[in-house]
Each structure stands twice: as structure tokens, then as C-alpha cells.
Specification:
Blueprint (H helix, E strand, L loop, with lengths): L3 H16 L7 E4 L8 H5 L5 H4 L8 E4 L14 H7 L18 H16 L1 H5 L1 H12 L5 E7 L2 E6 L3
Parallel strand pairs: 1-2
Antiparallel strand pairs: 3-4
């Protein structure tokens, strides 16, 4: 969640999980990132001398390694969250764009990924089953919770002491 738009959606997802009785208060962000100077952007950016003075205001964040690839900003959410913002009523609109919108290299990578999907549809359709088979092996560990898969994306929560 590197931009304010993503953070806005994350806060809606936070409210969703709180309403389900499963509050989640920690954000994930890439190590070494810079997203701006607002409290939200500093929260998910690398800590520095500049952000130190705001430390008590910053969100709880777990930093993960940044993959050595170029970025294409995208905000992903469930259809239920999307529908909450989709309306002809302008007061319901999520007014925000992305820093990497229309990045030529990122867009080329997205188009290439889409073409791979179209050319190898059968392989992608079986990926969910492959993920589930391997993730089921991880369920034996007490630190692994909330295993889920949707298409080509697999996720799980790691519980740490």
C-alpha cells in the first residue's frame, strides 16, 4: 500500500475486518520505499531522520523485502469493497490516483502478463489447485493461519510471538 489511494482502501478493509470481529491493525510495506510526506505515506515508507519526529503518529508496519522489479501501481480489493466505492454519487467516489499511473514500462509488463494469461489459460486455471495442494502442507504449522487462494494468488497469515 504505497500511496494514499491504497491507504484509503486499506482503511476501509480495516473497518471491514473490525466489523467482522477480526481487527487487523498492521500494514505491510516494502523496505526502503518512499511514498511522500503525509503521515500515511511516511508510515509505509522507510524510516529516516525526517520521519523520526513523527514516530508516534505512524501506523504499525511490517516491512518486507522489495522485489528487484519495476513498479506498476495498482490497488486491489474484493468486489464487495469495490462496489462500496462504485456509484454515480460523487460523495462515494475514491478520489485518488497512483504515482505510477501510465508508467510505460509497468504498462508493458502488465500487457505482457495479460497476454501470457490469454496464451496459457489452461495453466492458469489449474494454478489455484496447485496452490491449495502446497498450502495445505503448511497448515500443520501453528504459525500459519487464514490460508486463502484466489486464482493465481495465494496468501496466508504468519503469527509471530
Amino acid at each position: 500500500m504505497g500511496d494514499e489511494g491504497g491507504l484509503k482502501v486499506a482503511h476501509q478493509v480495516y473497518q471491514y475486518w473490525s466489523n467482522q470481529g477480526q481487527p487487523r491493525t498492521t500494514f505491510l510495506a516494502f523496505e526502503g520505499a518512499y511514498h511522500g510526506d503525509t503521515v500515511g505515506a511516511m508510515s509505509v515508507g522507510a524510516r529516516s531522520l525526517f520521519s523520526k519526529v513523527f514516530g508516534e503518529l505512524l501506523f504499525d508496519v511490517e516491512f518486507v523485502l522489495f522485489p528487484a522489479t519495476y513498479s506498476l501501481a495498482v490497488t486491489v480489493c474484493t468486489e464487495e469493497i469495490y462496489d462500496a466505492f462504485y456509484s454515480d454519487d460523487p460523495t462515494k467516489t475514491l478520489y485518488h490516483g497512483h504515482s505510477y499511473t501510465a508508467n510505460p514500462l509497468g504498462c508493458a509488463a502488465a500487457i505482457a502478463s495479460w497476454e501470457l494469461l490469454a496464451q496459457n489459460e489452461a495453466a492458469f486455471k489449474t494454478m489455484e489447485a496447485k496452490h491449495l495442494r502446497h498450502l495445505n502442507e503448511l497448515r500443520q504449522y501453528s504459525q500459519v493461519e487464514h490460508v486463502r487462494v484466489m486464482g493465481t494468488i495465494a496468501a496466508l497469515d504468519l503469527v509471530t510471538p
